[in-house]
Design a protein that fits this description.
The protein is built from 2 helices and 4 strands; from the N terminus they run ββββαα. It is α+β, with helices and mostly antiparallel strands and about 160 residues long. The chain has a domain of about 100 residues: Nucleoside Triphosphate Pyrophosphohydrolase, CATH 3.90.79. Strand 3 and strand 4 form a beta hairpin. The longest helix is centred in the last third of the chain and has 15 residues.
């Protein structure tokens, strides 16, 4: 799907390789890691060059409560200007009382290691805090959902 920009809006007119020496905001890195099976693997990732040395973060998310009608999910970008990854949020209901939903196992690729566990929505924020304290990296989409639930509770939305 190609999204059309409104007339007069900024638009990308070219995409070309960027030399590391020209990069101001990001750098491409190769990470070498050992997976849970003990196999050494590599992964490419982008990193910001702008994170202050004394800080564990390089940005601040601001939550603004705006009152407007609910809309369906548009294409959302994970970190616009940093990567080209995007997604749409999809809501599904799973009846956990059905036998076929009792002991689900993910169908993983060889280099995927995903642990499946269930958390009650009311406990999601506290569980994210607990897991982060244990050293887990919390995906921003999960953290945003958890924070949204906390905001809804606080403001009785």
């Amino acid at each position: 799907m190609v999204l059309a920009a409104p007339e007069g809006a900024a638009k990308v007119i070219a995409t070309e390789p960027l030399l590391d020496s020209e990069a101001v905001w990001t750098k491409l890195v190769k990470k070498i890691y050992r997976d849970p099976k003990g196999i050494t693997r590599t992964w490419e990732s982008a990193e910001r060059r702008t994170r202050p040395k004394a800080s564990g973060i390089d940005g601040v998310g601001i939550v603004a409560i705006l009152e407007k009608p609910t809309e369906s999910s548009p294409v959302m970008f994970n970190d616009p200007g940093f990567t080209n990854t995007n997604l749409k949020m999809v809501h599904v209901s799973v009846d956990m009382s059905l036998p076929q939903n009792q002991h689900l196992e993910p169908e993983l690729e060889e280099n995927e290691f995903i642990e499946v566990f269930h958390v009650r929505l009311v406990d999601l924020w506290e569980e994210c805090i607990r897991l982060e304290a244990e050293g887990y990296a919390i995906d921003a989409r999960i953290a945003n959902l958890a924070e949204g639930i906390e905001i809804a509770k606080k403001f009785k939305l």
